[in-house]
Amino acid sequence: MQEREAIVRLKRGDISGLDHLVREHQVQALRTAMLITRDKALAEDVVQNTFIRVYQKIEQFDESRPFAPWFMRSIANASVQASKKTQRNLSLSEEISDGITFEDLLTDNDNKPDEQLEEKERQELIKSALDKLTPEQRATVVMRYFLDMSEQDMSIALDTPKGTIKWRLHESRKRLRGILQRVITPANGWGG
Amino acid sequence: MDKYTIQQDLHNIVMEEIPDDMNILPDIHQQVKNTSTPWTRPMLTISRVASIIAIFILVSAGGYALFQRNLVSKDIPQQRITDINETQTLEKVAVTLNWAYGDAHRIALAYSMEYPRLDNFFNYPIVTLKTDDGLELIPDFGGGGGGGGGEPDSAIYSETIMNFDSSTIDGSPDTINLVLTLDFSADAIMSNPSMMPMSGGGGGGGGGGGSSSNGEDGNTPPATPDVSKIIDRVYIFNFSLPFYEALKVEPEVNTVESNGVSITIDNIRYTPSLTKFDMCYNMPDDEQWGATIQIVTDSVDSPFYSHQQQPIKISDDGRPCVEVSATAAIPDDADKFMIDVLFLSQPLRPLSDELARAEEEYFAELGYSIKIDANPYGYSMDMLNYPDDIDASDADEFVRASLFFKRYEGDWTFTIPLK
């Protein structure tokens, strides 16, 4: 079954159309929601509810257009809204894992050259940096760097002026750069 | 750390928490069952046409993918297809541009790939098609492909048909020079996460569907790419095609009334593979009904096309008009073709067990044994048996296209002379 056929089936009430869309897009959607909400249970709720809304609103969707960009925009937007309701932003001193705090990570890495940073360590740093951002800022980072969306698409997805998106990206990059300054080189880092 | 590393880290971070095989489908099914109906519509008279048994291929130039080795498009006149069969091999991966076809509505082409099982090769190219003066043609949503790897040590073979909208090409040149690029580089892989083999779809290690189709060929879920090890393979094919212009043609009679509904067809633009036209009609209940049409010549019957899209304009007499695109390989020697509007249709709602049993009985009379599990929200259907003279996929398509639909019948036939 192709995606267009799945959508047409879904418009007819045929659940096999929804099944196809879920199978094709659930993992990417869950990962997007997880990165934005930073909460697995919340991410699952967001994705489930968004798929249900897809069915409820599928009549409005033009099946000649690709589904994934439209759907991922919905996931990102719903993730931001869900995160704002639960507001999960770590404090500076909150424990991240195994007794390591955000401040500890910064301190630990101050003396470590880039090449010596282990992959796992680097990922922990990024993870904790994400936790420090607001949901909107996380969404901009995830949409830009995980989903590789353009600023124009992000503006549409978040129903936010392009200038605000640029500002959020700038702020997010600035905050992340501050955290990751030991591992990102200025030449090829967060310019995009 | 560069942008790719950041992307890779984001993927790795979230992969630990959301593995490739995570499946929330059962939870969604449960939620669907617990959700009330989203909308209902009034029921009108139901009439059925038992004689119509066919595959319904839905909407415009996209729904014509077939999966078989040496893919062909049945909706293109075969004598107008240009065989190219040019193969380029880079680092053990052979890509062949098999054939192409071009007219003022679409460019269609097929490429195939053959390669041994390789680590860090991902069959998700960025495909671009440009004219030789740099105009990029946008892929139509349709297309298709397939393939498979067979035994673990055997080579992987896949084939893909892609379609591109050519309506942006100016004028009506006799031939058109095109440049096809298939980019398998790390940049291409990482610049299009939706193509990345991280959603558990086909492709990759199993060699499944092409770029337009996420294969459901039972392939092994591919690994996440290690971009640092991807070899930059970029294939560029320069080729020329005959280009067939779109001809405006007029029906003998452009308005036909039947069963109280008047249908007008105009603005017919015809190429050898795809016909577009505007169709205006208004139903007695003022509701929006879809139309199922077929293009017919003396020797060829196209598939049925069911159109449910939104109107594009309102006619001078106030009727909503939809734009219809129907692929049909009209023979060179045809002196006319017909557009048959077979029936108008609208979904039957609300769904219920009672309606499901009625539909089961109706299809049983046609020779189809089906089991429907319906709730106010949607339904699932299992095919238990079907007539001997139809294959399984056609039977499934026919039932799904007809299930829970009411029909408004009439006899609307438009004859379009070509010479």
Question: Would you kindly provide a written description of the structure presented here, covering whatever features stand out?
Answer:
The complex is a heterodimer of chains A (192) and B (419). Chain A is mainly alpha-helical. Chain A has helices at residues 3-11, 15-37, 40-57, 67-86, 102-109, 119-132, 135-146, 151-157, 162-180, and strands at 95-97, 100-101. In chain A, helix 4 packs across helix 8 and helix 6 (119-132) crosses helix 9 (162-180). Chain A has a two-stranded antiparallel ribbon. Among the domains of chain B are: 76-242, Immunoglobulin-like (Sandwich), CATH 2.60.40; 246-349 and 404-417, Sandwich (Immunoglobulin-like). Chains A and B meet through helix 1, helix 2, helix 3, helix 4 and helix 6 of A and helix 1, helix 2, strand 6 and strand 20 of B.
Poorly predicted sequence stretches spanning 5 or more consecutive residues of chain A: 88-116, 182-192
Terminal CA distance of chain A: 36 Å
Number of structural domains of chain A? 2
Going across the major beta sheet of chain A, what is the strand order? 1-2
| Outline of chain A | globular
Which architecture name of the domain at 76-242 in chain B does CATH use?
A: Sandwich
Biggest sheet of chain A, in brief?
A: 2 strands, antiparallel
Strand-residue fraction of chain A?
Answer: under 5%
Number of helices of chain A: 9
Q: Secondary-structure map with pairings?
A:
The complex is a heterodimer of chains A (192) and B (419).
Chain A: H1 3-11, H2 15-37, H3 40-57, H4 67-86, E1 95-97, E2 100-101, H5 102-109, H6 119-132, H7 135-146, H8 151-157, H9 162-180
Antiparallel strand pairs in A: 1-2
Helix pairs in contact in A: 1-2, 2-3, 2-4, 2-7, 3-4, 4-7, 4-8, 6-9, 7-9, 8-9
Chain B: H1 3-17, H2 25-33, E1 56-57, E2 82-90, E3 93-102, E4 106-115, E5 126-131, E6 136-148, E7 156-165, E8 175-183, H3 186-191, E9 234-242, E10 247-249, E11 255-258, E12 261-270, E13 274-281, E14 290-296, E15 301-307, E16 313-314, E17 320-327, E18 336-347, H4 353-365, E19 369-375, E20 378-385, H5 392-402, E21 405-417
Parallel strand pairs in B: 1-15
Antiparallel strand pairs in B: 2-3, 3-4, 4-7, 5-6, 5-8, 6-7, 8-9, 10-12, 11-12, 12-13, 13-17, 14-15, 14-18, 16-17, 18-21, 19-20
